[in-house]
């Protein structure tokens, strides 16, 4: 279990970003924030179901409830953005990948945006991400799995301060609108043109 847990240094860094542990309410004391967060990390890094959470982290229902609360109140997003502030912004990479979801994930309200779409492989969610030169995530968003890789590229890059950066991506991101948006924000792009484009652009590979 320890390999999935936060080190002392990591915990001290994010501790101030979490809500106070003491609620001053009667009843059984809650598990502390660090234990709960380590339980969440065990789940996401092991890929196991919530019911398989080791008892050392507390009842899985309690850890899941804490996870849902911190997800919905923006705490986990605040932690993510605080940590991503250390990114190596010289070279940024943009790409996406599909994550298979269960059919039950598409239930509920029909009008809700659940970022789920049907592909040839079944129901999928597509994760679009920007990572820094060390491969650490800087920003991300979710969309339906049947969306094209490049559809959300501009929206995603708008969330990142890319001025002075070299933005690396594969040929799927070579649309003029994407390249022009990158240039307009003071960044350069390293995106090879497709073989069938009529006006290929030069590519200066980042060093």
Quick overview:
Helices cover 28% and strands 18% of the residues.
Low-confidence stretches: none
| Number of E-type strands | 6
Structural class: alpha/beta
- Overall, the morphology is globular
Strand residue content: 15-25%
Mean pLDDT across all amino acids: 85
Helix content: 25-40%
If helices are DSSP runs of H or I spanning 4 or more residues, what is the number of helices? 6
How far apart are the termini?
38 Å
User: What is the element string, with H for helices and E for strands?
Assistant: HHHHEEEEHEHE
Cα radius of gyration in angstroms: 20 Å
Instruction: Note the main sheet.
Output: 6 strands, mixed
Descriptive account of the structure:
Helices cover 28% and strands 18% of the residues. It has 6 helices and 6 strands; from the N terminus they run ααααββββαβαβ. Strands 1, 2, 3, 4, 5 and 6 form a 6-stranded mixed sheet that branches. A hairpin with a 5-residue loop joins strand 3 (122-131) and strand 4 (137-144). It is globular, with a radius of gyration of 20 Å.
């Amino acid at each position: 279990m320890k390999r999935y847990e936060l080190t002392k240094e990591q915990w001290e860094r994010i501790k101030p970003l979490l809500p106070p542990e003491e609620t001053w309410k009667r009843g059984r004391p809650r598990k502390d924030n660090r234990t709960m967060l380590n339980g969440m990390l065990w789940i996401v890094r092991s890929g196991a179901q919530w019911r398989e959470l080791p008892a050392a982290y507390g009842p899985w229902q309690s850890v899941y409830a804490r996870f849902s609360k911190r997800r919905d109140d923006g705490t986990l997003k605040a932690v993510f953005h605080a940590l991503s502030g250390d990114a190596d912004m010289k070279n940024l990479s943009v790409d996406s990948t599909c994550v298979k979801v269960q059919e039950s994930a598409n239930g509920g309200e029909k009008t809700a945006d659940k970022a789920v779409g049907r592909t040839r492989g079944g129901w999928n969610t597509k994760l679009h991400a920007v990572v820094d030169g060390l491969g650490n995530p800087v920003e991300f968003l979710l969309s339906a799995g049947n969306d094209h890789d490049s559809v959300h590229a501009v929206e995603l890059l708008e969330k990142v301060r890319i001025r002075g950066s070299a933005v690396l991506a594969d040929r799927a991101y070579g649309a003029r609108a994407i390249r022009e948006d990158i240039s307009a924000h003071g960044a350069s792009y390293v995106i090879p043109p497709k073989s069938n484009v009529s006006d290929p652009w030069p590519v200066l590979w980042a060093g």
